[in-house]
Amino acid sequence: MDSQSQSFSCPASRFQGLINSTREWLANEGFRSQKLQTEDGGTLIQIERTGGWRKFVGMSTALNIVFRQVENMVNVEIGAGRWIDKAAAGAVSMLILWPLAVTAGIGAWRQANMPGRIFGHVAEYLSQPE
After folding, report:
1. How far apart, in whole angstroms, are the C-alpha atoms of residue 19 and residue 57?
2. What are phi and psi of 74, to 5 degrees?
3. Rg of the chain's alpha carbons, rounded to an integer?
C-alpha cells in the first residue's frame, strides 16, 4: 500500500480534539495506538489491531497516520505499517497451513480499506460544529 493523503479545513483550535477523537474512534474499532511527534512537527499515530493471534494468522493491521497542521488546514497522511507479517503468513500458509492464506488476504483487504475509513472519520469530526 502506498501512502495516501488528504487535506481538510481545520482551525488550529480543533487540531488536538481531532487527534483525540481519532484515537478514541480507532480504539472503538479495535486498534491500539501510540502518539508520537515527528521530526518535522507533525503528530504520528501508530495503530495496530489488537489481539496477538491476529499477527500469527496474518490479520494484523498496522498503519501510520501523520497529522500536520498548517495554518487552517490539516494534512492527514496514511501509510502501511507492517506488510511483512502478511507476506510471511501468506507464504507459510500456502505451503503448510492453507487456511491462513484466507486470513492473510482478509488482513491485507482490511488494511487497504482503513485509509478511506480514517479519512471519513476525520471529515465527519471536522464537519461537526465546535
Report:
1. 30
2. -125, 130
3. 16
Which pTM value belongs to this model? 0.71
- Which of 128, 125, 87, 124 is CA-nearest to residue 104? 87
pLDDT tens for each residue of 37-93: 988 999 999 888 766 544 444 445 578 999 999 999 999 999 876 433 333 433 444
For residue 51, report the phi and psi dihedrals to the nearest 5 degrees.
Answer: 105, 105
Predicted confidence (pLDDT) per residue in 78-112, tens digit: 987 643 333 343 344 444 444 444 444 445 545 55
4, 65, 2: which is closest to 38 by C-alpha?
65
State how far the Cα of 129 lies from the Cα of 111, in Å rounded to an integer.
Answer: 30
Query: Residues 108, 91: contact at Cβ < 8 Å?
Result: no
User: What are the residue boundaries of the structural domains of the chain, listed by start?
Assistant: 4-127
Tell me which fold the domain 4-127 belongs to: TATA-Binding Protein (3.30.310)
Q: At what angle do helices 99-127 and 83-95 cross, to 10 degrees?
A: 160
pLDDT 10s digits, 17-32: 999 999 999 999 888 8
